[in-house]
Design goal:
6 helices; mainly alpha
Length: 120
């Protein structure tokens, strides 16, 4: 992961706050800095978090894997938006995440708005 991606993902997670965001930031730092950040025992503890610490553990695991932070339940949605299921291949999903600043749904909305503008 390059420094630009690290900073982008860190800013997204800071904006999220909460347990997921805190865990994500710690996992992202471990991913980026490697074994220089934290101890092996701390790393194993964070990886194993479940139960009442599930959100922190999920965040840590996502950050450590180098994935963009995922949108968590309870965050406000865009007015009029409802959950939908879509199927995308990995390449298109990654492109949509890039368009949406790490948010897959926002990237899909941007792509659809762009396509609609091209056809009008």
């Amino acid at each position: 992961m390059d420094e630009k991606a690290f900073k982008t993902y860190a800013e997204l997670a800071k904006g999220m706050g909460g347990d997921y965001g805190a865990g994500y930031l710690r996992g992202l730092r471990r991913h980026y800095h490697g074994e220089k950040f934290g101890t092996a025992e701390e790393h194993e503890t964070w990886l194993a978090m479940t139960g009442h610490r599930q959100e922190m553990g999920d965040g840590y695991r996502d950050g450590f894997a180098g994935h963009p932070p995922s949108r968590r339940p309870g965050r406000p949605t865009r007015l009029g938006a409802r959950p939908r299921n879509v199927s995308l291949d990995d390449e298109r999903a990654e492109f949509a995440r890039e368009l949406g600043g790490g948010n897959l749904s926002e990237g899909i909305r941007i792509a659809l708005d762009m396509a609609r503008g091209d056809q009008e």
